[in-house]
Design goal:
The complex is a heterotrimer. Chain B is α/β, with parallel strands linked by helices. Chain B folds into 3 domains: 162 residues, P-loop containing nucleotide triphosphate hydrolases (Rossmann fold, 3-Layer(aba) Sandwich), CATH 3.40.50.300; 85 residues, Helix Hairpins, CATH 1.10.287.1770; 385 residues, no CATH class. Chain B has 29 helices and 10 strands. In chain B, the strands form 2 sheets. Chain B has a 7-stranded mixed β-sheet with strand order 2-3-4-1-5-6-8, with helices on both faces. In chain B, helix 7 packs across helix 8, helix 14 packs antiparallel against helix 22 and helix 22 crosses helix 28. By secondary structure, chain C is mainly alpha-helical. In chain C, 59% of the residues lie in helices and 3% in strands. Chain C is built from 5 helices and 2 strands. In chain C, strands 1-2 form a two-stranded antiparallel sheet. In chain C, helix 2 runs antiparallel to helix 3. Classes of the chains: A alpha+beta, B alpha/beta, C mainly alpha.
């Protein structure tokens, strides 16, 4: 299964988190929001100007800029 | 006898914490600041069953690490001030992420009561929750509440009192894998051997050390045992450790949730349906702009009659007192100084009330997060957060509520920059100045000139923001990690409380500075220049060449002469600091045109100043020192005279440079002379 | 997902969409001093920005009807949001009217020759349609504390 960074995933796709590659403080904040490895993330939509991106995770909606999403390594799931 | 206990209210943002706070304390609340920072500290009192409770509303946080100011405040309060009990408000529609904070609170060893808020909504969403089972698992009281309706609050208070009287609980709500537990144990032994650490819950401190919490490591470095601690920390594969810990916390929560509730995930929720529309690729931005237009219209048209009422009332009051008081200077001080000063504070109140009412509707409904989501790309370009957009737009009406609206921006640096550049957005009070000058000098092209000034204001604001981001307020952009909460119907009561709190802050804190400024200018205009022989406070002296302000005008004339301004303009600009629209009135008096604006316009057009200098004056008016009201709120919101002064010097400097360049180059090439 | 019969919603969206768009365009035309002839009769004053807002609301409805005809069930979201938006604007126009009326009593000099009907805008009387809509579909808007727009079962 191909590994990709989260910012490259098309809307209306579900993925699973593999690893966080950002700096420690960013990584910690992302973890606190529940994006732990193994978590399922649904890419909902991009903002009208293409950035940030909205995700559904653990039953709530979260938005990240592409810059932050780039630090999340994911694999696609069905 | 009444017992006194301190109750801290914790919870994630957007979980109804404020509703719980309002439901418990009613109107007995006061707002202060957390020590050293300008984040609001809300406190309230409630006497219930012989117990006096001091409720402290902690900032909404997702976690208790130290990566945001809010988290540091919450954590420091819990550790340093040791409240008797912590009530965590949990959003029943979003258990998993909310319980993550609970685990951290429990690790911190505080006594916890959980308010399971909005259970009705969870049911509406099709989720089933068994709160008794949660209570069993976590071993803390779990009380369902519907705070917006006041349901469950008494039961919550009962539980608080009961729990507060119990002995302190042990602090290991969840256990980690063996390796971690081993290290936690080793660390705990070291920590317990040093008095330095007695202040902190040792298990929590050990876990934070393992997680690599910078703040905690710094504290540990100051102890004698740090070498021993470092030995153990070296064993951890640092990179993955906090991932491992967060992962284990979430796994424990998930395992519990599987047994206590049944979450419906299949259906498209109402919020998702609304989001499909309001963040739609084509329609999202137009809808946002339309709503902004509506808010703007309402803030400024609906406030007009009330502002006129205040204006008329204070005009009447000033006139009436002037008649009653026979001493001329005293009449002038009371009428033109104090009463006019209070009037200039109160006149903004209708605007502020309306704007904050609408902002709280937007915040409480959940639309604010969407607005930030939509506009973030634009604001991100200049290094700001999406939320900075709304205050800047509001600035077109009045900079005062605009600066207060920056309270919705969490990142302190983003907020500071937004405050500092907001005065460059051309507000309504500057329009009369443009209308007069552009009308006098540019006739049919006045519209284009005025539009150009608005555009210049935006440009200066944007470029200044970018400039500050790369120089004085340099630093990495705050990461954009924002929850898009479910939409909710805001309650009128909640929005009114919110609105009134802000208005109180404006009146109390900014009001004083504004009043002092206005009276100060009155003094300058009323004190006769030494040797002029004028009478203090007399009508002949007020604002004339023989008054102190006249002298100042002459004194600063050399400074503004290169811009094509004479002493009269200098005086008008000084008066303009009271309120920008006064520039026009003062010029009328100084050029001997009286109150009649048409007359003044004719005098100006007949050659009292060149069109080029007129254009320069408009640019100067746009950019220089904002009005006293604005200075007052900048001071209040930044909490610092340094930054207030920075804004004044920066703005006035820019104004001077722009007007200078315009006038000097323009007159050399014969443009508009 | 199987398709749900949404004929009523579709019809409503088309009607509201067309009406709001037309009136919005008329507003803008008047604002650009193009005489349409019927504007005065329908209380349409020149107002470019206000007109643009009506066009936006109209577009929301029309966008929804396009999605519904394509068989996207969630297209109905646009109808609900359109209804909410048009009610917001109706309220804004009514409050503006009230504000100006109050102001004309306080400072009559500024309002010489002004009549309150100058503020009577299509945004107000067009709002009757979404008002009927929200009453008809009120069981889908559960507005207690959270906005739950229930899917048609």
């Amino acid at each position: 299964m191909p590994e990709k960074t989260l910012d490259l995933i098309e809307p209306e796709t579900s993925v699973k988190i593999l690893k966080l590659t950002g700096q420690r403080s960013l990584r910690k904040r992302i973890l606190d929001m529940g994006l732990t490895p193994g978590t399922k993330v649904e890419v909902m939509r991009r903002a009208p100007l293409g950035d940030p991106v909205e995700f559904k995770i653990k039953g709530y909606n979260l938005s990240l800029r592409k810059k932050e999403a780039q630090t999340v390594l994911v694999e696609t799931v069905e | 006898m009444t017992k006194k206990i301190t109750v801290a209210l914790a919870g994630n943002p957007n979980v109804g914490k404020t509703s719980v706070f309002n439901a418990i304390t009613g109107s007995r609340q006061h707002v202060g600041n957390w020590p050293g920072v300008t984040v609001e500290r809300k406190m309230g009192k409630r006497v219930y069953k012989n117990t006096e409770m001091e409720i402290v509303d902690l900032p909404g946080t997702y976690s208790l690490t130290t990566y945001s100011l809010d988290e540091i405040i919450a954590r420091d309060f819990l550790i340093e001030e040791k409240p008797d009990i912590v009530v965590q408000v949990i959003d029943a529609t979003n258990l998993e992420r909310n319980l993550y904070l609970s685990t951290q609170l429990m690790e911190l060893g505080v006594k916890l009561v959980i308010a399971l808020n909005m259970k009705d909504l969870a049911l509406a969403k099709g989720n089933r929750i068994d709160e008794e089972k949660i209570q069993e698992f976590l071993d803390v009281p779990v009380i369902p509440t519907i705070a917006s309706k006041g349901t469950g609050i008494e039961r919550l208070l009962d539980a608080v009192i009961e729990e507060a009287s119990k002995a302190r609980k042990n602090d290991d709500p969840l256990s980690y894998d063996e390796a971690t537990e081993g290290m936690v144990h080793e660390l705990e032994v070291i920590l317990k051997s040093d008095q330095y650490f007695a202040h902190y819950p040792s298990r929590w401190f050990s876990i934070k050390l393992l997680e690599g919490d910078e703040n905690i490591i710094k504290k540990a470095q100051e102890s004698k045992k740090y070498t021993q601690i470092r030995e153990i920390l070296r064993k951890t594969d640092e990179d993955n450790f906090e991932t491992k810990i967060a992962d284990q916390r979430y796994s424990t929560i998930q395992a519990m949730l599987r047994q206590v509730c049944d979450i419906n995930t299949s259906q498209l929720s109402g919020s998702d349906m609304v989001d499909r529309v309001v963040t739609n690729k084509l329609l999202g931005i137009p809808i946002f702009l339309a709503l902004m237009w509506a808010a703007f219209e309402l803030t400024f048209t609906f406030a007009t009659p009330f502002m006129n009422m205040i204006d008329i009332f204070f005009g009447w009051l000033a006139g009436a007192t002037a008649e009653v008081i026979s001493t001329e200077w005293l009449a002038s001080l009371v009428g033109d100084g104090i009463i006019a000063g209070i009037g200039s504070v109160l006149i903004f109140l209708p605007n502020i009330l309306l704007l904050f009412f609408m902002l709280s509707l937007m915040e409480d409904s959940g639309y604010m997060a969407r607005a930030a989501f939509i506009m973030d790309r634009v604001m991100g370009r200049i290094g700001l957060h999406g939320k900075s957009f709304i205050p800047l737009i509001m600035g077109f009406g009045c900079n005062v509520p605009a600066i207060m609206a920056t309270r919705t921006i969490e990142d302190p640096r983003d907020r500071l920059i937004t405050i500092l550049v907001a005065p460059f957005i051309s507000c309504g009070a500057r329009l009369p100045v443009y209308v007069l000058l552009a009308g006098a000098f540019f006739g049919r092209d006045a519209g284009i000139v005025i539009f150009g000034l608005y555009a210049l204001g935006i440009l200066v604001a944007v470029l200044s923001a970018k400039l500050m981001r790369t120089t004085v307020l340099r630093g990495e952009d705050a990461p954009f990690i924002m929850e898009l909460p479910d939409y909710r119907l805001p309650t009128l009561k909640g929005s009114f409380i919110h609105m009134w709190e802000r208005a109180k802050i404006y009146l109390k804190k900014a009001g004083g500075i504004i009043l002092i400024g206005v009276v100060g200018v009155w003094l300058l205009a009323s004190i006769p220049a030494p040797g002029s022989g004028g009478v203090f406070g007399s009508e002949e002296i007020y604002g004339s060449t023989d008054s102190l302000v006249g002298v100042i005008g002459h004194l600063i004339e050399p400074l503004v002469a290169p811009l094509g301004f004479d002493w009269r303009i200098a005086v008008a600009l000084v008066f303009g600091i009271v309120a920008k629209e006064i520039v026009v009135g003062s010029m009328g008096v100084l050029y001997g045109a009286g109150e009649d604006e048409q007359n003044l316009s004719n005098i100006l057009a007949a050659g009292a100043m060149t069109p080029l200098a007129g254009l320069g004056l408009m640019v100067f008016t746009l950019l220089y020192v904002p009005c006293f009201a604005c200075i007052g709120v900048i001071k209040r919101e930044t909490g610092s005279w340094k930054w207030t002064l920075f804004q004044l010097v920066y703005g006035t400097g820019l104004a001077w440079v722009f007007a200078f360049t315009l006038y000097q180059i323009g007159s050399r090439i014969g443009f508009l002379t | 997902m199987e398709q749900i019969n949404q004929n009523k919603e579709l019809l409503f969206a088309l009607l509201a969409g067309v009406l709001y768009s037309i009136f919005g365009v008329l507003h803008i035309a008047e604002g650009l001093s193009i005489n349409t002839g019927i504007a005065e009769f329908l209380f349409i004053s020149g107002d470019i920005l206000g007109g643009a807002c009506l066009v936006i609301i109209g577009t929301v409805f029309l966008y929804g009807s396009r999605e519904m005809t394509k068989g996207v069930n969630a297209g109905v979201s646009f109808v609900y949001v359109g209804i909410l938006l048009s009610l917001v604007f109706m309220a804004v126009y009514i409050l503006t009217m009230g504000g100006n009326l109050l102001d004309s009593i306080i400072v009559p000099d500024d309002y010489e020759g002004w009549s309150v009907m100058e503020n009577f805008r299509p945004g107000i009387y067009l709002g009757i349609l979404p008002l009927m809509g929200i009453l008809y579909w009120k069981n889908r808007f559960s507005l207690n504390e959270i906005l739950v727009v229930r899917e048609v079962a």
